[in-house]
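Page 42, continued from yesterday. The earlier attempt failed because a stray header line got pasted into the input along with the sequence. Redoing it now with the clean sequence only.
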Amino acid sequence: MVRTRPTPSLSPESVAHHQGPRPRATRLLPSRKAKVPPTHGGTMHSHSARRILGVAVLSLAIIAGIAGCSSDKKSSGTSTTTAAAPTTSGVKPVNTLTKADIVQMQEWLDAVGCDVGNNDGVIGPMTIASLKAFQKGAGLTVDGTYGPKTKAALSTDAQAKKKICVAPTPPPAPVGPTGASAACTAAAITAGLDAGMTAGTTVKVTGFGCDSGWAYAWAELTPPASSGAPTLGVTDVLASRDGNWVTQDRGVVCQQGKIPSTIYTNGCMSN
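This time it went through. Structure tokens are written below.
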């Protein structure tokens, strides 16, 4: 007798449990990469940029090194001393007399025997000394100013060729600097000009300059009110002598050509 195994029966729930729905096959899609804009030259462009950056950094380092060396040289090197520049100050005054007026006055003084040196159209110490000599000989107030009375008398005597100055005019001051140096200040320059002026004449220095013991001065001379003379603009050359400024004869020192160029330009060539 043949025995057969009974076939187990499965309930519908069991069949559903074991078989179940078939899983769906999953298809893997390739991942999208971010688009990178193309570069010109590719890898070579990147290398070029790095090379330029490296050169720039190296250049800055070289410049910094040069600056440091220069700074070291300046700090450790021997300092040099240059000569001080000439001192100048102020402005030239406006003369109430023209150059032609002054030249005419000087020519008239020559005609009456009162030598003024060069007829250069500039009122200096020699011209003032000659005016005083004429005023003394003509019986006028001796103040060294060119007022209306002095001008009228000088004009008349010059046209008549009348010799008024029989005595020589005062000798000019010693030439050139010597001894201690005078201070290059307006006060010291004014004191030097005052020494050659008549009492009552006011000296106002409007400009001056100093160099190597010499000085030039631009000044306004205001005569006493009683003289009736106008304010004059004068140019003088002075020399430092024993700590004081002394006016010089421009006709002598300017022709010698031995004074500094700054003094010559402003004291001899200014008119």
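Notes: The two ends are 166 Å apart (CA to CA).
Reminder to self: strip header lines before submitting.
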